[in-house]
Amino acid sequence: MSTLWTPEGEHRIPNAKSGQKPASESLNDTSSLPDLENMTEEQIAEMVDKVRGEVLNTPAIQIILNHLSGLAELAAIHLSVDQPDLESAKLAIDCLEAIVEKIKDKVDNEISNAVTTMLSQLQVAWVSADGTSKSD
Fold this sequence. Notes:
The chain is mainly alpha-helical. Helix content is 64%, strand content 6%. It has a domain at 86-136. It has a two-stranded antiparallel ribbon.
């Protein structure tokens, strides 16, 4: 089951295929990656077609929500260090905000509230980090 993490906890993403690994687990598991150096061009093309097919069979909103999670994590990472990178965090937060505005009416209320809360908390964290860096 795919989920979206927010400070309030995990939220189930609608229409998730059961048994599917979360993206974060898949990214860390390299044991199933193909050996591209020993593959023919035809095998690589076949693999690309398969991946494209999987993407086409996944609802766009699931992929977009996964990207939202990545943007939120990116912002949080830039804000969580001793010397926050406010410019990078702001860019990630601004992109997150633009996407949240576009999708909030296209997802159920629980997901909409979760991503809106996540965005608000990151904005508050940015303001806090900005205030801290100015007082140094």
